[in-house]
Each structure stands twice: as C-alpha cells, then as structure tokens.
Amino acid sequence: MIFIKDGLPCLVTSQDSEAYLSSGTLEIDDDSRDYFTELQQEQNHTGQPLFLRMAADEVIPIENAHDLLRQYGNFFFASLWTHPEYRFAFFQMESLPDYCLIEPLAKPVENWLLETLRCVPAEDSVLQTIDHSLVPGFSRAGYDCLEKLSLDEQEVAFCQQVATESGRLELLSTALEMNPTELAHIVFRLQSLKIIDLWPAD
User: Fold this and answer.
1) pTM
2) Which end of the chain has fewer surrounding CB within 10 Å, N or C?
C-alpha cells in the first residue's frame, strides 16, 4: 500500500509483514521473539508498519523508526520495478489512517521514485538484459526531468558523458571507470524514469 497526499507519497507499507521485511536485515533475539511476532500480527491486520509501534513502545527512538520506514518502504516498492505483471489499483480515502505520516517522502515525486530504483538489487536479472552495444540518448522530456532530480555522483557523471560524448554503453563503462553492473543499474534507473532511451549504434 502506498498512501498519497496532494500527489506525493507519504508512506509505503503492507499487510504482509513478511514481504515488507524481506529485504532488510533485522535480527531478532529469542527474548524479543514473542513481542516481534505480536507486532507482525498487528501489521498484518492494520497495515501499520511495526516500526511505529516500536517507537510508541519506546523500544526505538521515533527518528530511527522514520529512517526504517523509509528504508523498508523503498526496498519493498523497489521490487515492483522488476515485476511488470504487478498492477496498481487506486482508491480515494476521506482521510489517511492515524498512523500514516503526513510529510511527503520526497519532493518532487520523481526523487522518491529514483530512491526506490536505487534499491533494486544489483544482482537482479533485469539488469542482465540491458544490451551494452546500444547507445543512450536523452528522451524529449529527459532534460526537464533531470532538473527536478537529486542525482548521485555516478548518475551525474553518466548524464554528463551522454550529453557531451555519448557512445555505446560498453565504451561509456570504460570512460566512466564503472563496471558493467554499475552502469546497467544507472541505465535501468534513468530508463525507468523515461529520461533516456537506448538506440542501436550506427
């Protein structure tokens, strides 16, 4: 579930707590097992991420809970990028649940989408399907979208290379001193946001 207010996502959660937690590295000791099981059952029933209950019980600080909400929400949503069979259904609500955070996860929404794309695992098979003999180029709306985004250093370097001296992906990998997997991940992110297209070399 993604709760949206004024066009911006403010919380990602799931009533399947095991799926929600599957990309993380939480370690639960035996003494906390019953408590954690209770939290999972509550999330399965209400959708409230268990980190908020842990903060309410003063098990973790609220700031830590918000960091974990963002981390696990991003990883949970990231799986949707590589499963095209998933479909979204939108429902209008009179009000958001009490547990739903009001502050948006990012402004504009493209920044949040980029965050989730960065969470796609590097070993995901979809990255292996990118043809490194193709040439990247900016789409018609690509430049406009770039102006909204907070890019990391590798993404900036890639975009600068495409803008000034584009070539086959295999050549860009060498010029940017990136391994093919790193480059494929950047290509996948920018292509998913429709910032770049890939074309056959002349």
Assistant:
1) 0.87
2) C
Taking every pair of Cα atoms in the chain, the longest distance, rounded to a whole number of angstroms, is: 64
- Give 22's DSSP letter: T
Look up tokens 């770049």; give the residue: 196
Residue 188 and residue 43: Cα distance in Å, rounded? Answer: 32
Per-residue pLDDT of 136-179, as tens digits, reads: 999 988 888 898 899 999 999 999 999 988 789 999 999 999 99
Contact (Cβ atoms closer than 8 angstroms) between residue 50 and residue 24: no
Judged by DSSP in three states, 162 sits in helix
The answer to whether 116 and 81 are in contact (CB under 8 A) is yes
Strands 2-5 and 135-138: unpaired
